[in-house]
Write a structure and sequence with these properties.
heterodimer, A: 116 residues, mainly beta, seven-stranded mixed sheet, 0% helix, globular, B: 114 residues, six-stranded mixed sheet, four-stranded antiparallel sheet
Chain lengths: 116, 114
């Protein structure tokens, strides 16, 4: 069964450094998402991406964040200058993309980002 | 703002006991509803979903959930749990008018004692 994969599984970085989190969505899916979960808090939506552009983003997704689909398989989340509060588990998800949201998102295993 | 509430943060029960996890949401429009499960060390997996039709939906591993529109609820049930059901369970809601994003509840950690 196809799965969403994410690399790396753990990333430790210094505050102010740039990080890129990578995801390979399921191959026939058209929508891609990033969510994050700060320890002890809810899973929060960050951004959705369709047809090579952002379709929706939350207020968390500020100018420090960007997403890209650099090739036909990868989907990346870049944090330009990490802050301590960016420490979280970041989940990538993908979905086929159907009308009226009747669409199932499949999640990757997550990347645990620790900012020191 | 739309919110999703899971009232139980931790549940401990013995094998063969029945399980019911509550999920309520605050939005009054058309919604799609999901339950995801995260087994220890694994990623979020879909247990079941409701888009339309029969409000009682059956998912994998013997789980079911009932959508009660008047109560804004989508409670998850399993009549007889197994030790392997130890996991964290997340309710998620998609507000149809607001795109495809999911809003998650806080999760419920379930520990099934053998």
């Amino acid at each position: 069964e196809p799965e969403v994969t994410q690399t790396p599984s753990h990333q430790v970085t210094q505050m102010g450094q740039e990080v890129i989190l990578r995801c390979v969505p399921i191959s026939n899916h058209l929508y891609f998402y990033w969510y994050r979960q700060i320890l002890g808090q809810k899973v929060e939506f960050l951004v959705s991406f369709y047809n090579n552009e952002i379709s929706e983003k939350s207020e968390i997704f500020d100018d420090q964040f960007s997403v890209e689909r650099p090739d036909g398989s990868n989907f990346t989340l870049k944090i330009r200058s990490t802050k301590l509060e960016d420490s979280a588990m970041y989940f990538c998800a993908s979905s086929v993309g159907r009308q009226n949201g009747a669409d199932t998102q499949y999640f990757g295993p997550g990347t645990r980002l620790t900012v020191l | 703002a739309q919110s999703v509430s899971q009232h139980n943060h931790h549940v401990i029960l013995s094998e063969a006991a029945s399980l019911e996890l509550g999920c309520n949401y605050s939005y009054g429009g058309t919604v799609n509803l999901f339950w995801y499960v995260q087994y220890p060390g694994q990623h979020l997996q879909l247990l079941l979903k409701y888009f339309s039709g029969d409000p009682l939906v059956k998912g994998i591993k013997g789980f079911e959930a009932e959508f009660i529109k008047s109560k804004f609820s989508f409670n998850l049930r399993k009549p007889s749990v197994q030790w392997s059901d130890t996991a964290e369970y997340f309710c998620a809601v998609n507000r149809v008018a607001a795109g495809n994003k999911l809003t998650f509840g806080g999760g419920t950690r379930v520990l099934v004692k053998p």
